[in-house]
Every structure is written in structure tokens, then in C-alpha cells.
Amino acid sequence: MKKSRNTKQKELIQKEIDKLTDFFTAESLLEKVKKKDSSIGIATIYRYLNHLKKQSSIHSYLCDRRTIYSNNKKSHCHYICEKTGQVIHFDVDSIDFLKSKIPGTISSFQIEVRGTCQECKD
What's the rounded Cα separation, in Å, for the pair 64 and 87? Predict the structure, then answer.
């Protein structure tokens, strides 16, 4: 496997990722990084994010047909109203009930729940 060089650009990108406490997109990360080095492009961001995903250093999820990333959240959950399409993010404290059903360990998860929200039911 080819060893990745540690460049100034990668160091800058990593510093910005380390500051983030919530979900982010490659584009939002690029905005932050460009303020410090305008020569960094979106391809460099994607290459570095893919490298981090392979190392399991960050997690990626699909949200509203876009990939989002997180360096500290290991789950991403949605409740989607089938009448309005409104997406509500929520947290799940435990998925222990799945441990006996999965032949391995769980490192992250994404849940999508659909139904009719309270506003539409009333």
C-alpha cells in the first residue's frame, strides 16, 4: 500500500477537521480551509476525506442525497415525514438490541425512519 505523505495542505485540512464538532460536507470544509490556503481545491479535500475514511478516522453518511462527514459522531439518524418530506435529525442512545443480530462489531450506523409527523396527523 502506498504510504501517504504528510503535506502542509493535509496538516491544514486535518486542523480544520479537528475543530469541527458536528457534521460537515466536503464543500463546507473547503470554505474553511480556503481562508487559510486558497490553493487547496475540492479534489484535495475529497482525496483526504477518502483517505481518512479508509483509516476509519472519520465517518460518512448519506443525508438528503449528499455525503456528510463527522470526526466524532458515530451515528446519523433521520425521521422523515412522508407527507411533507421534512427531515428531523435525532440521536439514538443505544443499539444494543442489534448486537445479537450482527456477526461482528458495530463502528457506526445510520437510521432512517419514515412516517407522518405530529403536525400532519393533527
Answer: 8
Kindly state whether residues 47 and 93 are assigned to the same domain.
no
Q: How far is CA 41 from CA 7, 11, 51, 56, in A?
A: 14, 15, 16, 23
Range of the domain at 90: 75-121
Q: In this structure, are residues 80 and 87 in contact, taking their beta carbons and an 8 Å threshold?
A: yes
- Residue 67 CA, chain-centre distance (Å), reads 7
How many domains are there within the chain? 2
Q: What is the pLDDT along the chain (122 residues), one digit of tens a residue?
A: 444 555 899 999 999 999 998 899 999 999 999 999 999 999 999 999 999 999 989 999 988 788 999 988 778 898 999 999 888 888 887 888 888 888 888 878 889 999 999 889 87
Cell numbers 476525506: residue: 49
Same domain for 12 and 66, yes or no, is yes
Q: Tell me: do 63 and 81 sit in the same domain.
A: no
